[in-house]
Amino acid sequence: STRQVQGRQRDDDEDDDDGMGDCEKKDWKSTAHALDPISRPEIVKAVAAVKKSRVDDAIRFNVVDVEEPPKLALLSGETTRRVVSVTFQVESKAFVARVDVGSGTVLETRELEGGQQPMLTPDDCLLAESVVKDDPRFKSLLAERYGILDAEKVACDPWSVHCTGSEPFDTSKRLVQTFLYARDSEIDNAYAKPLDALPVVDLVARKLVHIGIQGSSPELGSRVEVPMSYNYHPKLLSQNSLKGCPTAPRQGATVPRPLEIIQPEGPSFTVEGQLVRWDKWTLRVGFNHREGLVLNEVRFAGELVVWRASLVEMAVPYADAEHPFQRKCAFDVGDYGLGYCANSLGLGCDCLGHIHYFDATLSDSKGDPYTVEKAVCMHEEDDGILWKHMEYRTGHAQSRRSRKLVLSFIATVVNYEYLFYWYCKQDGTLSLEIKLTGMLSTNSIPAGSQPQHGTLVAPLVNAQVHQHMFCARLDMAVGGHENSIAEVDVETALQGDENPWGNVFLKTEKVLKTEKEAQRDADASVARTWRIFNGSRTNGVSKKTMGYKLVPFVFGPAQPSLLTHPDSMVAKRGVFATKSVWVTRYREGQRWPAGDYTVQSDGREGRAVERWAEGDESIEGQDLVVYHSFGVCHVPRPEDFPVMPCESTGFMLKPDSFLVCNPSIDLPESASTMSKCNQCGA
């Protein structure tokens, strides 16, 4: 939530020094392509149109973002008007207006259906915290229960309410629950000092409607011990008293020596507006408040691979039966918006090398635009050896180093950082790696007890077992927009006449013919992949259809799908996470697999991706969208605290008879002139 405030400060800073070293900055709005992100003038014009149409209303703006034109219009080259969708609230009601920003007119306005809540914006999160801290009952609770006399010594983490039917408050209201942590300063690690109370705020009424207490804790009126300080910030390491934990920054020989990334001739990519060209790749960069980074019109060697790729949903359930943690489950993309949570990236730490940055333009609850500078980072990375062979008889060797183009952004969703990295490689592979870091969402535990649903990561501090389930939306276009998909397994062959020695294992390929048949589970035991292919185009070498294959679990270990019970509200709201792959025909308006509105959603909204497949239409030779769900099951360790090292997950799209040969054999020989031999001094 602080990113929005920082973005506005930077936006208004007239003396902002370039200070970016070897980097290039490009404003999002340097071109007028139909897929360009929203611009500041478009936000201003759309907001003005809505205000003009509601002159008597006190409006709180939720989202102002551009609508992508219909796909068929884009493919046909049809000129389309620029339409901005404006979600706003008037008291307890929420509306969506569509504005033609060319003419400045409101095309239509509709009210959200009963039970639908728009996402929680950064301003909503800040509002929830201020409501809690200003409440006299809360201040009394702090003093009586924890001995805390200043509410500013508490951090209130804003979470959407995962409604299970067990809530002792009215869930028809627009709510935020705030997990509490004590802290002595802004840099103090609050997650080392969790408090056992849980306030719930009505955002519309701006009041505290409930204060719950953790089930195993003493009742209200009792005094509770606050855990000790435990920090990672270099200025506070000296406060750490836990035996074996560092108490000072490293010095001397154990400090790593500088490692610099140098490109003396500059980067190998070119950028024209949002269009990027690198090696044999071209793509168009997009960004919005909900998905964050979007890749459009991705081509390799001149051929389409993916029309549109992004991360469209997450579910993060916590596996603790103790009250009130049954309602601790966030749908981070739909609840908060990854674009809203985007960091401003730092040169030399978040991104190394010769960097091209893209800014992001967003809007606040007043409808005012603001800029998150350097929201997306693009750079090249060395990727080890791409290919090599030495003829052992002669000693002659040919070797080429690999490099990859990296497009990344980082989202801070309350306590967690999610680092999203799209990789384009010289062998034609496109992959998404997600790294998880930041802070464990901790809870207090009575002295002397051992947690049943987590791990003690510090005295009196429990970190609960949880999952992070992601869903990528891949609008596939392998060699064109008419594709099919097959499930490919490798299995042990039965021993017999065709396998007399028992050494045979066979690839089996099953074409998935309908939408219901294409709801599939990953299976590492048979090396399962999914091959998306163009049935009208045949590879000249393999004689197979032109294809790309989806390879799961290429970053981190193989992981299970959603582990909550099938009857749980998590499973009902997050149906997408119960399968590894869903395939549907492309249809306008179908993008969010857990529903358009996930805040306080019920099981009906959460069935969106399953509902899209109810017609069970053919998916052979059709315009296909693949929804790939994957994730991390996190069983916390003490080593994940007081700040968590990165965990990785992700997938790869790999050419499979898309090309006739290794596309990188034409790379010239090269050798680094900066490399040195340590022991020989050369």
Describe the protein's topology.
Layout: H1 2-11, E1 23-26, H2 40-53, E2 59-66, H3 71-76, E3 83-90, E4 93-100, E5 105-111, H4 122-134, H5 136-146, E6 154-159, E7 175-182, E8 197-202, E9 207-213, E10 270-272, E11 275-278, E12 281-288, E13 292-300, E14 303-317, E15 329-330, H6 332-335, E16 355-363, E17 369-391, E18 396-413, E19 416-425, E20 430-438, E21 442-444, E22 454-458, E23 461-464, E24 466-476, E25 484-492, E26 505-512, E27 519-520, E28 529-538, E29 545-552, H7 569-573, E30 581-585, H8 608-612, E31 624-634, E32 644-656
Parallel strand pairs: 1-16
Antiparallel strand pairs: 2-3, 3-4, 4-5, 6-7, 7-8, 8-9, 10-11, 11-12, 12-13, 13-14, 14-15, 14-24, 16-17, 17-18, 18-19, 19-20, 20-32, 21-23, 22-23, 24-31, 25-26, 25-28, 27-30, 28-29, 29-32, 30-31
Report on this model:
This protein has 682 residues and is mostly beta strands. The chain contains 8 helices and 32 strands. It has helices at residues 2-11, 40-53, 71-76, 122-134, 136-146, 332-335, 569-573, 608-612; strands at 23-26, 59-66, 83-90, 93-100, 105-111, 154-159, 175-182, 197-202, 207-213, 270-272, 275-278, 281-288, 292-300, 303-317, 329-330, 355-363, 369-391, 396-413, 416-425, 430-438, 442-444, 454-458, 461-464, 466-476, 484-492, 505-512, 519-520, 529-538, 545-552, 581-585, 624-634, 644-656. The strands form 5 sheets. Strands 1-16-17-18-19-20-32-29-28-25-26 form an 11-stranded mixed β-sheet. Strands 10, 11, 12, 13, 14, 15, 24, 27, 30 and 31 form a 10-stranded antiparallel β-sheet that branches. The chain is globular. The two termini are 50 Å apart.
